[in-house]
Amino acid sequence: MSNYVKISTIGNREFNVEEQLATEEMVDRMMKHLQQKLSQVLPDQPDLIVLPEFCDIPSNVFLSPAKTHEYCRVRGDKIQRLFSEMASENGCYIAYPTLRLQEDRTWRNSIVVLDRNGEPIGEYAKNHLTLGEIEDYGVVCGTEAPIIACDFGWVACAICFDLNFDRLRLQYVQSKPDLILFSSLYHGGIMQPYWAYSCRSHFVGAIGGGLPSAVLSPVGEVLASSTSYFDFATTSVNLDCAVVHLDYNMERLRQLKSKYGSKVAIADPGHLGSVLISCETDECTIEDIIQEFQIERLDDYLERVSAGRRAE
Fold it and tell me: How large a percentage of the chain has pLDDT more than 70?
C-alpha cells in the first residue's frame, strides 16, 4: 500500500543582523526571516519540513560563543513557539535544529521534531560534536539515538559531524528508520548516499551555507534538490518500499512487473547491483508483493552469503 510523504527541505544562505541591535530585536528579525523561509514551501502543503543546523542563529552572531549564548538565552523558546504555531496551522511536522540550553544547564546542539499539532514529540542531541563546539561553545555530546514515531513512519536524526561516525550509523542500520533527517552546515558528500543505502532509509539533508539540500532514496539517488537559484526543494517519497539485490531476483522482478505494471515501481541507480521496489497501489503492500514472488531483500541475501562463509 503506497505510503507517500511530501517532504520539504530548506537550506540557507548567510543571514546577518546589525550587531548594534538589541538582542531582542535580533530575535524578532530572525523570526520574520524564518517565516519567509517557510512561506516558500508551505503552498506545497508538505507533511514534513526539515531545517538546517543552527537555523535560527544569525551567521555573524554565531562567530562569537559569548554572543551566541546571550542570543540563545534571550531567544529561549520563542522560535519554537513560532514553529509550533506554523506546524499546527499547516498540519505538518517541522524538524527544528538549534543550540539549546537544557534544564540541567548544559548546552546541546539538537533537533526537536514538532508534530502536526505543534507538539514536540522527540529530540535528538548531536552525538558527535566538533572540538570547536566542545571547547569554544561548551556544548555537551548527546548519548541517545531515539527513533521518533510520526503518523507516516519512523524518523531518525543526525547533525553535521555525526555523518563521519560509524557508531551512530550502525545504530540506525539496526533500528531501520523510514527517514533519516540530516541537519547540517557540512554537506557530507559521498556520506549522504552511503548512509541512505546502508540504513535502507530515505535521507533528507537540510544544509546551511548555500550548499545543496536534497532528498535521497534508499539506493542513494537524489530525488529532489535545492539549486543555485532556490535554496529549498519539495518532493513526495513512497515509504512502502524495499531494497533488493538483483542476484536471484531478476526473473522474479520481471514477473512482478509483468503482473502489476505501473502498480509497482523499480528504481535502479545503476552500478550498485541493488534496486528499490515500491508499491504504488492500495491493493497490497510491499511485504505482500515480496511474499507473493519470494523476492529476497538485500539484507536477507547478505546474511545468507555470510552464513555460507561461516559454514566453510
Answer: 99
